[in-house]
Input
Amino acid sequence: MKRACALLLGPLAAHAGVAYDVAVRPVDLSNVALASSNPAPPVVSHYFVQDGQVRVGDAGGKRVYVFKDKTLYVIDNASRTVHVLKHATLGQVAAHYADTVKQLQAAAANAPPDERPQAQRKAADMQLISERLLEPVTRVYRLTVRFETVDGHACRIWEEREKDAKRLELCVVPVSALPGGVDILAGLKTLSQFRQGSDLALGVDFGMSEWWPDVASLGGIPLLIREYKYDSQIAEAALSAIRPGVPGGSLLDLPEGYPVQDGPDYAQWYLR
Output
């Protein structure tokens, strides 16, 4: 369904928000191959946050994502189209799976006797998949005595462990010590509502599990996130080039002349 292109993503605030970059770099420290002498350059995305609304764009500007009011708008500059993705938030995902399970269970109950066992197995399999995807993950955070400096800002290292294995190091700076920190924190909270929101916010995939309360409990903003697997670092994400007060009203508007279309499903979009 197409909607008018004059749609705006909300009223503008008196202040101008904050812009920053996130660079995600894979690290090759495996026991099988030596670390590459020519490592791949980091993937850099550009962020703008204002009043909890978040704009994320790639370096080329071909595709831009705007997150606001539990809605994800994808601005595709190649096709000059805006898509409003379905099932984009964790809550929408949970509701979608619950509804699918109910539909399969109803279909099984009404299926002919010879088809009912197979239909029941299909419903049970979907219910199991849903429960596994949405199962809470226990994460334990520990404050260390280590300090580092990221992009000129002093931060302190926290360690995060899952099932007794260290998965993350997060170098956290107090919100008050970071220019634009209040806006950045509000943007991280907004992203926490969405599928792959942790990937966008921190460069770490937490799947469908809730992660915002854990990050909020750190009392600051992670400027550097190192990810570990089997005691080896496998990736690093860093926030840098923080620029508060960037004029930004138009950055959160939808482009004029771009038709706005509902769909497709979030998963279908990212499987393209």
